[in-house]
Known about the structure:
heterotrimer, B: 310 residues, mainly alpha, ABC transporter involved in vitamin B12 uptake, BtuC, two-stranded antiparallel ribbon, 12 helices, C: 246 residues, alpha/beta, six-stranded mixed sheet, four-stranded antiparallel sheet, globular
Amino acid sequence: MTMQKTSFYAILLAIIVAAPFLFPDFTTQLATLWLFIIVAMTWDMTGGQMGYNSLGNIFFYGTGMYVAAVIAIGLVYDVGEYTGASGGGRYDFTNEQYIIGFILGTLGAGVFCALSAFVLGYVLFGLRGPYFAIGTLGTAIAAGELVSNWDWVGGGQGITLPVYGGDYDQTKLFIYFAFAVVGVILFIFLKWLYGTRFGAAINAIRDDEEKAEAMGLRTLRYKLWTWAMSAFFVGMVGGISAFQLISFEPLESAYQTINLGIFMVVCVLLGGKGTLWGPIIGAIMFQVFKEVTWNYFLGWQWVALGALIVITVVYFQDGLMGWLQQKKPEWFGIRIDQKEAASEAAK
Amino acid sequence: MDQILGNIDLLIQFPVVNLKIIIDGVMIGALFALAAYGLALVWGVMNVKNLAQGDFVIGGGYVSWWLANNVGLHPLLGVPVAFVVMWGIGWLTYKLVISRVIERDLFTSLLATFGLAIMYAQLMNLMFGSDTQSLVLDVSILGLQNNYYFADGLIDLPAAKVIGVVLAALLATGVILFMKRSRMGQAIRATAQDARAARVLGIDTEKVYAFTFSLNSAICGAAGAIIVMVWVIQPFYGITYSVRAFVIVTAAGLGNLPGVIAAGLGIGAAEQYGSHIFGIGYQQAIAVMLLLAVLVYRLLQQKRNRQVLQ
Amino acid sequence: MSIIDVSSVSKSYGGVKANSDISITVEKGGITGLIGPNGSGKTTLFNSIVGYHPIDSGSIKFEGQEISRMQVPEIARLGLLRTFQQTRIYGEMNCVENMLISLPHRKMTFWENFQPNSKQDHEKAERLLEFVGLYEKRFLRSGSLSFGQQKLLEFAMALMNEPTVLLLDEPTAGINPTLINGLIERLKRANSEFGITLFIIEHNMRVIMNMADQIYCLAHGELLAAGSADEIQNDQSVIDAYLGAH
């Protein structure tokens, strides 16, 4: 790594650590920003790098929430009894129970989601193009509906985690750093992954899957692993979100297909598909847009977001990075044979 | 579990209940088939997979509901009015968005229409509120009873539902005749087969696309105006109608009209059975699970042909 | 010793018999050619072998293993590789990247997949690009190359994959005639130096006569003749088929 790069990353890390202390009033928004960055980056693993546009990654978010909550509660109480009481009776978390529940819950959520990605992917990856998108969307909607009928996890009411006595501001900071740690690990992981043969293989699947199959790539295995890795991180942040929200219900906050489920796609498109930085930049752009509309178009914010999706998809689908790549291909190390390109154009 | 077994037992003990479920299912299925036919049309002609399909349905329902409540329009007249209004909205949607995604990859159209679906649902939420709404169709002025009873009252048949099915059938017949007989219908079918060839032969495909999409929206709108009489609507119910339309089209295949109708009726019946056995809360889940089941079935079918589903 | 055994394969589309009762063998280490006029069923047979559609009856064996029910990726992983008539390369990547992605993944362990490409991989990629004459253009976006160059790149990618058998679908189609001799030369060297068995569909009689040890000729979905280049050249039925006589 060059000196320049090292100092760039050092400054970045310093900003990440300092941000919640510099802007203490915005800790929750900053945590949400991390959530968007993480889900956008994980969506890009399949959508941008592998060419499989999932509309159902929110499935892992919702499932992660539930798994984490069930683990955290189950360590201390009987889950069925707890959800059955739904507010009646007093249930607490001690400091220790909270921390252990948090760690085991989020990790368990990640592992569970990765495993379910293997199972679901085995069926869904037989579908290509729009069928994959519709199939994954269907899976997420179905999961939300089924969970809202499942009384053991609280049915349509959802789950409210036990009361935790910790300091409110400290908890907010804790949540922020939990997101930030997952985000930084994910970034390092992806930076490494995209440089390996595996990364090249999933790019090949995106560019021409039939060719990749004909060249003997183990396409199904690569697809399953990519989705599972992506699901692992989404499940973890889902778990963290459960602790952040404390109280959540299945359709609006866990399996929120038409909110976060689609927003993650829009973040990636805004920033630029198939690049390491695109989803991050896109998530920041989206979050800023969202906050602005929330403040100035109150009541109309959802319509504005819908319009943003449509406009992004129709007019700006390559995103910021894609636009730069076209304007300045040399920045990205792309070389084109001028002579050949000219003769192609002349044809 | 006991309850599920009990519900199944009920079906065996009282076979006539099956009849009621099937009648209900077929009635609602006829309306699903309408929306699915519109989807198949747009999908086949311009290769756009419209996820806002259900929102057009709900939109049509609100047109009729609003006019009935504010102008006093009779619900039956709401059907043609919704057809016309939604035609206009479909045309606008086409000009503003759809026309720019036709030539692009399939995910683009899927995502753009998903965005539209969210926008429409939220707009309806702002305009009409998030409560469920319905209209009561009083047919006594036509000299009919509002409810007919059969089999010792075990089966009740509201006149509104029967009229709804009849209207749906009329609409479907009208559209089919239009597609078969009219010049525009022929142009649409030609474009569906080969847009480029159609262009070479002097068909204005841009016009055909705009017309097809508006027609689809209008069909959905009319279906919605019928649904508001026999069922309830709510701004966010659109997505489930879209999912149902996708189930039907995926199961039946494009350009297979009898298949679309059969699949529509079948899904209506399957949903009614499902909600009878598992409880009403599972109704939406069943629609989606059927989609997954159909996709898996098609997948296995293709695998035998050494192909994938794309 | 034969490596591909096609025996009594039939395939029809609706009522049209594209292949009927065709039996051919491809000898290990040799160059086998498949010729025939347009619509004679060459590509259908080719697609049956590589797994693009099911066959109606008969059997196809690769190294003694029945492959007629396998899917494309499974067959490819056995080391039976194909090139496409309309070349298929990863247009957004440069030539070296195209080569590196063509490393034989079937020979890698799971953990080797998660390693970056080694120096040897890069050297091998550049050596093969030099072999097909694309060394100068190795860092160019492959989509910007001419059709002929893309075809050469696809060939180099196939070599990178170290296949046991390489099936080529009309390798000279669309290539500038002045370059054809060079391509024939390279195909022969791929066979002799890398030991890759070649099975070539070719429309151009001159090309195939120059290379193949054994030639099969199809017409109207049936096997018309089989034999060495000389035998085929002097076979009256082959001449008739090509001249359109019935």
